[in-house]
Amino acid sequence: MVHVPGAADSGPVRLGILRVTPLPQETTASLISRIAACYGMEAKALRSCWKWRNYQPGHDGGGARADAEVLLNAAGRQLLAGLCGVEEDVLARVLPSWEEEDAKLPAEKDGVPAAAWRIGGAVAGPVAFGCRLCTARRTGTAGRVVRYAPLWSRVCVRHGRWLLDADADQPLEHLNVRGVPEVTVAQRRWTGVVRRAVRAGAEPERVFALAHAVVVRWWEQAFHWDRETIWPRLLHQVAGGNAGTDLERWRIVGRDTVVFPEVVAVADALLDPAMAQLAWLDSGAGQPRALPADGAFCRRLGERVGRRWLGPLAATDYGGPLTSWMGSVIRIRRGAGGPPGYDNDPWWVRQEHQSATMAGQLRVLGKEKKAPGSGRMWRAAVPAEQRTLITRTIESAEEQLLQLRGVQTGPTADVAQQLLRNLRHSAALIDNAWRRTAVAAVNAGMPWEEVARWAGMPADTLMNMLAAGQEDGG
Question: Do 461 and 316 share a structural domain?
C-alpha cells in the first residue's frame, strides 16, 4: 500500500487497492493518469510518489503535451506495478516504454523511485489518442488514453473513428469516419499489404512511409487538379459536413485520414512485381530511354487509386519520391546499383520527401495567423507553383497598364486604339488570374458559396463562368 495526499476534503488515499490494467501500447504517462483518476486524484498528486529529474514537456503556447512520456528506474517501475496491481512482466509486455533507460535516472534497484519526462515520439514511435468508447468498454471508465500507434492502425473499426496524433496542440482526439467506409476498408486491406511486404523481403513500415510520401506529395499538388473530386468530398465529411472558413486547419488535421486509402493502394501497387515490370518496360528495358509522360506504370497506378487521369501528372513529377522509387527499381534491374545505400534501395525516403507532421503544420499555421497582413488563406490554400503562375499573370497585367503611360502622343485615333488594345489585354490577364484563383480555391475544397462571395457574384453565375472558361481552354 502507498499513502499519498488526496483531495483536501478526503484526506490521505490508500493506493494499490484497485487493479488498473494497462491497455495495449499505452504510454506509461497515460497509465499513471488513469490510476490517479480511478482514485479520484489529480495526476500531479500521484506523480509526487516519484522523484522527478526534469520538467514535464509542454507546448510553445503553454499547456502540457498529451504525448509526454515517463521513463522510470527500477524502483520507480516496482512502485508503479504496486500502484496498479499488475505484475511487472505484464507491464513490460504491454507498455513499450517500460524498460527504456535514461541517463538522468539512477540505476540502483533498491534506490529512490525516480522518473524522467520524455517526448513519446522519441521513445517508441508515433503517439496517438485512444478511443474513449473502447476504453470505457474495457475498463468501465471513458477516460483519455494515449498510446503508441502508427498511421496504419488509427481506425477504430467498432466505433468508426480515426484516432489523431497526440503530439499536436489541438483539441480533437478523433475524427468521425463512419461516413467514409473507404478508410476502414483500407485498414483491413493493409493486413494483406503487410503479408506481401514480408514475402518480398521489405519492411512494412518502410513501404508505408514511401507510399505516404508519394500520396502526400499528390495531396499538396491536388489544388490545381481540376478533375480531383474525391479528396475535397472526404475532407468535408471528416470535418463534420463542411470545413467552412476553417479549411486551412482542416486540411492539416484531416490529411492523413483522407489520404489513407490511397496510401494503402500505392503501397500495394509498389509491392506488385507486375507494376515493377511496367516501370522497367517504360524505361526501355535493355535500351534505356527517358521515362515517358504516358508510361504504362503511372497510368496503371492512377487506375489503382481510382483516378485514370492521374498518370501523366505523376509521370512528370520529376524529383519526387515516386520517380525515385522507379529509378531505384530500374537501376537494380540493370545491375547498375552501387554499394548499399539509398540509390539502390527502393524504400528509402529522402529527407526532402518526408511529409510534415500535423503538429509541425499547425505550428506554422499559428505563426502565419499571427503575422500581419492579409492573404494567409490564399498562401496556404494554393500551392507555390500555382501561386507563381497567377502572380506572373497579374504582373503581366500591371506591366501592360504601366505601358499605357507612354501612349500619349500621335493621332487621337491611333492613341485611342492602342489604349483600348492594351486595356483589353490587361483585362483578359486579370480575368484569367481571378478564374485560376477561384478554381484553385474550389479544388482545395472551399464551398462554391464562399468562393462566390469572395468573387462578388451568385454561386450559379460563378459555376457557369468557370465551366465556360474550362470548355474554352481558359
Answer: no
User: Does 189 fall in a domain?
Assistant: yes
Same domain, 209 and 341: yes
Q: Do 388 and 282 sit in the same domain of this protein? A: no
Are 221 and 74 in a shared domain? Answer: no
- Do 214 and 293 fall into the same domain? yes
Residues 206, 137 share a domain = no
Q: Considering the domain boundaries, does residue 6 fall inside one?
A: no
Considering its fold, how many domains does the chain have in total?
3
User: pLDDT in tens for each of the 474 residues of the chain?
Assistant: 555 554 434 445 566 678 899 999 999 999 999 999 998 999 999 999 999 999 999 988 788 899 999 999 999 999 999 999 999 999 999 999 998 887 777 766 558 899 999 999 989 999 999 999 999 999 888 889 999 999 999 999 999 999 999 999 999 999 999 999 999 999 999 999 999 999 999 999 999 999 999 999 999 999 788 899 999 999 999 999 888 888 889 999 999 999 999 999 999 999 999 999 999 999 988 788 888 889 999 999 999 999 999 999 999 888 899 999 999 999 888 876 555 565 678 999 988 888 889 988 898 888 766 654 434 444 444 455 555 566 666 666 666 555 555 545 556 666 566 666 666 766 676 677 767 777 766 665 566 666 777 667 777 777 666 666 554 444
Report DSSP letters for 22-50, one per residue: PPTTB-HHHHHHHHHHHTT--HHHHHTTS
What is the residue range of 321's domain?
Answer: 177-353
Whole-structure pTM value = 0.75
